[in-house]
Design goal:
With 178 residues, the protein is of the alpha/beta class. It contains seven helices and five strands.
Length: 178
């Protein structure tokens, strides 16, 4: 089933914990203005459903449904989260295939040592142990088919947002008026 329009943009931001996915998504929304829906895995999985990340979990379908709804409503959509390739890859591939407009996927790559250092600055640092973080960490967990652009750790937040805004064409589009 086709979704969105030729004018809507679908952006997928993936990567391990503490790589800056949420900050990049917020930066894109702030830079663009109204008209960008951020579909955050953590919000739908942990807050809305309060479920664990496991194969076949309900959040996978909810992420898909939410992104499709927003695209059909004329929003540009940023889907962001760890989104392990083996659990979310099939859904993301279908979403990409079904989307009528341009789709761009980015994998924010940060080595383990940097991930650990960044995690220590997060509000959940006291709740999530180093052992848990190590268990979640997957080195370059890329989607099959080479559909993702790898953003390396040396790319600063503003630089990453600028790059994505330019490559997706969002920088040249007007924000929604409503």
């Amino acid at each position: 089933m086709r979704v969105g329009s030729t004018e809507t943009r679908l952006i997928v931001l993936r990567g391990n914990s503490a790589t800056g996915k949420s900050s990049v998504a917020a930066g894109i929304r702030a830079r663009f203005g109204r008209g960008v829906a951020v579909v955050a895995q953590d919000n739908l999985r942990r807050v809305v459903l309060r479920e664990r990340d496991q194969p076949g979990a309900a959040n996978i379908g909810l992420i898909d449904l939410t992104a499709r709804y927003a695209l059909d409503a004329g929003y540009h959509v940023v889907v962001e989260g760890i989104l392990y390739a083996d659990r979310y890859g099939e859904m993301l591939t279908r979403l990409r295939t079904d989307h009528r407009g341009p789709t761009h996927a980015y994998y924010l790559h940060v080595p383990w040592e940097e991930t650990l250092a960044r995690h220590a600055t997060k509000p959940i640092a006291q709740e999530v142990t180093e052992a848990q973080l190590r268990e979640w960490y997957r080195e370059l967990d890329l989607l099959p088919g080479g559909s993702e652009t790898v953003v390396h750790p040396g790319s600063a937040l503003d630089e990453t947002v600028d790059r994505i805004m330019a490559e997706t064409g969002l920088a040249a589009l007007p924000a929604r008026e409503d």
